[in-house]
Amino acid sequence: MTFLLRSSDGGEYDKLRNIRFSRSIDELVSILDVEMILAAGSNIDLTGTVQLYHDNKLIFTGQCFADNQIQADETQMQFQFRSKSFNLARCMHLGAKTFNKSNLSVIVDALLKPFGVKVSSIVRNPKVEKFAIDSTETVFDALDKLIKDNGLLMIDTPSGDIAIIDRNVTGSSFRLQLEKNIQSFEYGREMQEVFSEIHVISETEKTFQRAIAKDPNAIGYSPLVIKSAKKATLAELQAIANFEVAVRSARASSMKLAIPAASWVFDGQVVDINRQVNLNYPDRPDFNGIYMIKSVNLGFSENEGHTVELTLAEPNEFLAKPEVAKKPKTKKTGKASKAGTLKIINP
Questions:
Q1: How far apart are CA 287 and CA 308, in angstroms?
Q2: How big is the CA angle at 169 (ends 311 and 130), to the nearest 5 degrees?
Q3: Could you say which of 83, 153, 167, 248 is the most buried, measured as most Cβ atoms within 10 Å of its Cβ?
Q4: Would you give the end-to-end CA distance of the chain in angstroms?
Q5: Helical H runs in the chain?
Q6: 11 in helix, strand or coil?
Q7: Distance from C-alpha of 145 to C-alpha of 153, rounded to nearest angstrom
Q8: How far apart are CA 145 and CA 298, in angstroms?
Q9: Within 13 Å and on the Cβ side, how many CA atoms surround 232?
């Protein structure tokens, strides 16, 4: 495995002593920390855009947000880079704005354009009836809500731009098997947000509806009530209850594993986030199954060599929104009301 750092002024640097790179579905911003050694008295300027290549494949594009220089017998340079979407997570859109009956891509482009970030690909481009940008929330928060409300996900890409995607629930899987391409395995569970019953209610002066979904994996009797602020159909309430149980149960588990550096490239492509993994773990057959890659952490150091760590997640962790079960088409009699903002009520 070889790494090459390229700067916007044409400079190329391959004498990299330490590298730490991470990309995650949870975090839009990819992170790259680099340490390099130069001749004594040397200095380089990496304030522009930089790109990191792994075996001639682009894996990161971003900018330097911190650097440190140590001068001795040689010059030690330390840089902290963040992908181009970094400012989306810390800056607000200037001024409130409302979009009516606009395609999703139109709204996203309007939010991204001031920051020099583009949409590299979009799997679907639905029409959004109405979307208001609140100038008190970050651009990332506005984008995240908009895209998830339309059943999609948003991830960072090696080019530094954004891809709007579906969960990768289909397609070929990267196979991981203990004693073949798994070096170490770590599993953890946190049941704090898992409840035995999720009750979703809709209440007005004249009507009261309740939908219930149960999780057999919860610890003891532990009900949670979620209230819809607006009137909703029973089917919509049930979809919310099912969604909450599925996502909370999936998020309770965490799975990390290290794989050989040579296994990071599969079918000619690096094993990246949102890729399916087919896990085969003979010692714990209850772990076997299909997972999604939630995060990738790539490292290189003179002492440890190359390391690749994957964090896996059950596919349900990244369900974007509740989906009402589809019914056979019938003659329309009117529009169903939509579920509103949710409130969590302490059980």
A1: 21
A2: 100
A3: 83
A4: 53
A5: 104-112, 139-149, 234-251
A6: coil
A7: 10
A8: 29
A9: 26
10 sits in which H/E element: none
Q: What's this model's pTM, rounded to 2 decimal places?
A: 0.80
Q: Which of 307, 339, 321, 301 is nearest to 36 (CA)?
A: 301
**Tokens linked to 299:** 């490292």
Which domains does the chain show, CATH number per domain?
3-83 (2.30.300.10), 91-165 (3.55.50.10), 168-326+338-347 (no CATH)
Which residues are 298's β-sheet partners? 21, 308
- Strands (E) located in 178-230: 184-189, 197-203, 208-214, 223-228
**Residue 65 in contact with residue 30, Cβ under 8 Å?**
no
Task: Measure the CA–CA gap between 288 and 280, rounded to whole angstroms.
Answer: 5
Six-digit token string for 186: 């770590």
| CB distance 85 to 162 below 8 Å | yes
Q: Which helix (H) or strand (E) holds 92?
A: none
- Distance between CA atoms of 315 and 243, rounded to whole angstroms? 12
Q: How many residues does the chain have?
A: 347
Residue 181 tokens read as: 């391409």
**pLDDT values of the chain reduced to their tens digit, one per residue, 347 residues:** 688 899 888 888 888 888 999 999 888 899 999 988 777 766 677 888 999 998 888 889 999 988 877 766 677 888 899 998 999 989 988 777 889 999 999 999 999 999 999 999 999 999 999 998 877 889 999 999 899 888 898 998 999 999 998 876 555 567 777 767 788 888 888 999 999 999 999 887 677 889 999 999 899 999 999 998 777 889 999 999 999 999 999 999 888 988 887 766 655 666 788 888 888 877 788 888 888 889 999 888 877 788 889 999 988 888 878 888 776 555 555 444 444 444 444 43
